[in-house]
Amino acid sequence: xxxxxxxxxxxxxxxxxxxxxxxxxxxxxxxxxxxxxxxxxxxxxxxxxxxxxxxxxxxxxxxxxxxxxxxxxxxxxxxxxxxxxxxxxxxxxxxxxxxxxxxxxxxxxxxxxxxxxxxxxxxxxxxxxxxxxxxx
Length: 136
Prior knowledge:
This protein is α+β, with helices and mostly antiparallel strands. The chain is built from 5 helices and 4 strands. It folds into 2 domains: about 70 residues, no CATH class; about 55 residues, no CATH class. The chain is about 35% helix and about 15% strand. Strand 1, helix 1 and strand 2 form a beta-alpha-beta unit. The model has no long low-confidence stretch (mean pLDDT about 90).
């Protein structure tokens, strides 16, 4: 049995990325893909899908990253800041990168936990290059 038609209801980032992925994966098949979106809802344009997995997604589609960045005037996102997350006035940055560096094949987090158990109150996020760059 062959699927003849796929209808994607709703555009936006999710709809268009789904259409692009299915179009690529079903290339050469008889399946037709139709995307239906509202003409009354404008482009959001906030880059909500631009988290690190976008690299693998674009690679799957055969999109050259340098050309993509150039043609879309993109910037690189270092993380996402969550404001008023736990309570009003609280915020934190979720980095797109590692915390600290491993030493002698021992993961960084082991050192950080050891220091915490010893009474040190190191801010884990101060060990993230991405967080520090965002803060500055």
